[in-house]
Amino acid sequence: MNALLWLFNTIIQLYIYILIASAVLSWLIAFNVVNLRSPVVSQIGEFLYQVTEPVLRPIRNLLPNLGGVDVSPVILILLLLFVQKLVSDLVIQLAY
């Protein structure tokens, strides 16, 4: 059971890192630090978009318009951390 909990926690942590990378890349693109015409940046951006957008879109639809600020990654990270803690606590309670 510990191995499954470790795998679950690792997958959530990796997804949180992907969310952070997606947010940082979007800032770098917005401030013209990186160029989307570069094939490597374009492929990385497309991968991050395809992995994060299906989860972020429903959160964005629920949130009111905050202007140019997108807080959906922060909300998703908080939700993922909550689920991670909840599952860990449940597994620990079931084990004892």
UniProtKB/TrEMBL annotation:
<feature type="transmembrane region" description="Helical">
    <location>
        <begin position="62"/>
        <end position="83"/>
    </location>
</feature>
<comment type="similarity">
    <text>Belongs to the YggT family.</text>
</comment>
<dbReference type="GO" id="GO:0016020">
    <property type="term" value="C:membrane"/>
</dbReference>
<keyword id="KW-0812">Transmembrane</keyword>
<feature type="transmembrane region" description="Helical">
    <location>
        <begin position="12"/>
        <end position="34"/>
    </location>
</feature>
<dbReference type="InterPro" id="IPR003425">
    <property type="entry name" value="CCB3/YggT"/>
</dbReference>
<keyword id="KW-1133">Transmembrane helix</keyword>
<protein>
    <submittedName>
        <fullName>YggT family protein</fullName>
    </submittedName>
</protein>
<dbReference type="Pfam" id="PF02325">
    <property type="entry name" value="CCB3_YggT"/>
</dbReference>
<keyword id="KW-0472">Membrane</keyword>
